[in-house]
Amino acid sequence: MNSFQDRIIRAAKLDVNLYEEVEADKGAMRQAMAVVVLSSLAAGIGAIGTGGLGGLVMGTIGALAGWYVWAYLTYFIGTKLLPEPQTQSDPGELLRTIGFSSSPGLIRILGIIPGLGGVIFLLASLWMLVAMVIAVRQALDYTGTLRAVGVCAIGWAIQLLIFALLFSIFGGGAQPL
Predict the structure, then answer these.
(1) Long-range CB contacts (within 8 A, 24+) of 10-18
(2) What crossing angle do the helices spanning 145-170 and 117-139 adopt, rounded to 10°?
(3) Would you tell me how many other CB atoms lie within 10 Å of the CB of residue 162?
(4) Which of 11, 56, 74, 137 is deepest in the core (most CB within 10 A)?
(5) Residue 102, pLDDT score
(6) Handedness of CA 29, 164, 124, 142 (dihedral sign)
(7) pLDDT of residue 105
(8) In the chain, which residues have pLDDT < 50?
(9) Start-to-end C-alpha separation, the chain
């Protein structure tokens, strides 16, 4: 199995050592971006019956933008607002670890199976959330998980506000599924 596939599987298995590995590997940025793209494509394919081809394209673009915004928000919140004494990180570390935390989202492709879409998407979302907390904890060198949960919760709320503001300014409100 090649290194990229191995990393995806280890990330989905919530392997703490994988998140440490990609945190330190500056060459893993393209791999992290590829995981985000593959995960969003899997979601688009899994929801193609309701979102269509336009949803697939826009979903992929939105996932990349969300990943980027999320990583920078997490960096700022985790290093400036809620750091621990040993916290040292940079945006690249968070882009890489958070990118790989999208690995469980690959199962969303199974949402194409009639009647399973909702369950698959819920399972993938919860799995990705757990992976993200682990990614944040490792990238920010936290000693505990609770602070990483707090950083993710604050970042999620801020990102939600940013995207709601952008949608209200530029249009593109919620489309019926």
Answers:
(1) 11/35, 11/100, 11/101, 11/103, 11/104, 11/131, 12/103, 12/104, 12/106, 12/127, 12/131, 14/130, 14/131, 14/134, 16/134, 16/138, 18/100
(2) 120
(3) 13
(4) 74
(5) 96
(6) positive
(7) 94
(8) 173-177
(9) 38
